[in-house]
Amino acid sequence: MMQTSMERLGSGKKINSASDDAAGFAISEKMTSQIVGLNRAVNNINDGLSLIKAAQATTKEVTDIVQRMRELTVQALSDLNSHRDKNNIQTELEALIDEVEKIGAQTKFNGRGVHRETAYSIQTGINDGDQLHFFTNYISPSLMGTAGASVKSFTNIGGSVTFNVNSQDWINESHKFSAGDIVLLFSGDPKKPMTGSSFFVSGVADNSDGSQALNIYPLPNGSLQSSDEELLSSGSAVIVTVAEHGNPTIQNGGSKSLANLDITESTTTATAMVTIDSSLRNLYNSAIRLGAIENRLQFSVDNILNVAEATTMARSHIQDADFAQESARLAKSMVLRESASAMLSQAQVNSELVLALLKDVM
User: Fold this and answer.
1) 187-237 pLDDT per residue, tens
2) Please, what are the domains in the chain?
3) How far is the CA of 308 from the CAs of 31, 241, 296, 301, 322, in angstroms?
């Protein structure tokens, strides 16, 4: 009894081995595994929060740059500017475009491009599947301002392929899809980030609900790949204009992209304003999504910490020693040991006394 009490007081645990309490040992070990996993999940989420904050910071910086570009475009719309003035404005715009590209390409977190490798999954729990999937925003002047939409449905009849795309986010007809665009298909589901094929838009029809029907020609072999059909059937397919086939001199997303902004001519300045406004709207939406993800991750941290604390308390009731009780048991065992020693000593004295009396009688 004394040895057991000393062991429990020394370790602070009531259960030091499975022999102390087999059922309690199994339960406490399972709880320990859960607590360790929850604490690791908290670290994972904090890393995710750091990533989100980095993405928000760069998105804010790019937004400020595009706002400056809009200011310059408003200035260029005035006829009081000479051709030389507009060329000077164009020079600054091109420098700002290069800076946006630099931010998008060089912003990294733990070696990954924040605005290039945009699909992320964070382990937020202790079990397989306890993950949060999200996208960071892709920042590149070649795609900013171009036509982009989700694919509502598609048909493939005898090799003639049509995409019906949702255009609810478009605010100007000039920035919808048009014949001659080269579009890229990819997944809008962060759980399954996948890039599909490129397609040439051979014809466009505007639907009454504002959507568009695109007659497309798959590149480069002219046939729809099985992986593309799988992606289109998933319900998460998205397309975006990446180039203009009809005008090979215009690259990087075509004339509607931020990369090809031109305010030197009055005919292109109006289009430039639409491109900038579209880019700003997408940046605002990206900032909102990132903020929502940050709030969700913060709530996840708070919840996991509460669960870990409650689990730790429950494990303590099972595993930890009661110091008052064990101290009393130790004191009792020590008293019993001392009493036993005293009784043995007394018994020995009595036997010697009896022998002495017998010796005297003899």
Assistant:
1) 988 888 888 889 999 999 988 877 899 999 988 888 888 889 889 998 899
2) 16-140+263-321 (1.20.1330.10), 146-256 (2.40.10)
3) 9, 48, 18, 10, 22
Helical packing angle, 83-106 and 22-76, nearest 10°: 170
Confidence check: pLDDT of 316 > 80 = no
- DSSP string spanning 17-73? STTT-HHHHHHHHHHHHHHHHHHHHHHHHHHHHHHHHHHHHHHHHHHHHHHHHHHHH
26 — pLDDT class (breaks 50, 70, 90): confident
Contacts of 245 (CB under 8 A, 6+ apart): 180, 181, 182, 200
Per-residue pLDDT at 317 exceeds 80? no
Number of H helices and E strands in the chain, helices first, is: 6, 10
170 vs 304, more confident: 304
Neighbours of 51 (CB within 10 A): 22
